[in-house]
Design goal:
- With 268 residues, this protein is an alpha/beta fold.
- The chain has a 6-stranded mixed sheet with strand order 6-7-8-3-9-10, sandwiched between helices. It has a 4-stranded antiparallel sheet with strand order 2-1-4-5, with helices on one face.
- The longest helix is centred in the last third of the chain and has 18 residues.
- The protein contains 10 helices and 10 strands.
- 38% of the residues lie in helices and 24% in strands.
- Strand 4 and strand 5 form a beta hairpin.
- It is globular, with a radius of gyration of 19 Å.
- It binds adenosine-5'-triphosphate (ATP) and magnesium ion (MG).
- Adenosine-5'-triphosphate binds next to strand 2 and helix 1.
Amino acid sequence: MSMKPLKKQPIIELSNIVVEFNSRDGTFFNPKKFTAVNDVSLSIHSGETVGLVGQSGCGKSTLASVMIGLQRPTSGEVKFNGLQMKYGSAEARKQFGRQVSVIFQDPATALNPRMRVLDILKDPMDIHGILQPNEREKRVYELLSRVGLPRSAALVEPTRLSGGQKQRVAIARALALNPKLIVADEPTSALDVSVRAQVLNLLADLKKELNLAMVFISHDLQTVHQVSDRIVVMNGGKVVETGTAEEVFNFPTKEYTRTLIDAAPSLL
Ligand SMILES: Nc1ncnc2c1ncn2[C@@H]1O[C@H](COP(=O)(O)OP(=O)(O)OP(=O)(O)O)[C@@H](O)[C@H]1O
Ligand SMILES: [Mg+2]
């Protein structure tokens, strides 16, 4: 009997994803199509960070919104844990919501300024009925400690926190439901340069500790290189280059990738 190792199933598997939008220069009766994502295929396994990089407008955030269930692809297929994802229904959104979390660029707008941090972190558990109600508060304090915030942060509103601390709250919220995949779209771009490295390190530690799959999006190849196992370079909605972080960063095969490396400031 042969003992072939089972090939591990990807957490998320995108096949031939196309996203078209009605372009702005079309008219109501004669809509023109604009292809924001053009035939992208990509699989991500647990414990793996994939860096998605490319110039502004190349389709990174559109592809991210497909992965988090907000954007139905025009064509192509998304499988999550081997199951084909359906888009649009409340059930599908809930399914996505539990397994995929997202961290956005600007924590100031991503967090409700009128809610205390305690309630911001408890909210996803209340919505999804995770844990018994009396256990949720304890979990909030575990999450705070995991992202390096003091217990006292629970009782303030986000406006009282610094940018880096706010992003830590956003990361804690992303972890609240024990997701399988975290999609971080430019998570450090809005932060002060002095705290970017700390937040990057935190994300890298969490991915390792929790064996998460992560998509790290940035236009900055230096930053992506710091945290990624694999890099996917996009241009005009297409994947133009892909490989291990070292391969792509040290031996880029495309002129476009080289431009991204040269353009990147080394401030992190
Ligand atoms: N809802 C929409 N309707 C029409 N066009 C859109 C829509 N969303 C995005 N686009 C267009 O699709 C293209 C890709 O946008 P996307 O936001 O995915 O780029 P990006 O790579 O994330 O850019 P950035 O680095 O600036 O965040 C852009 O040309 C954008 O204008
Ligand atoms: Mg974007």
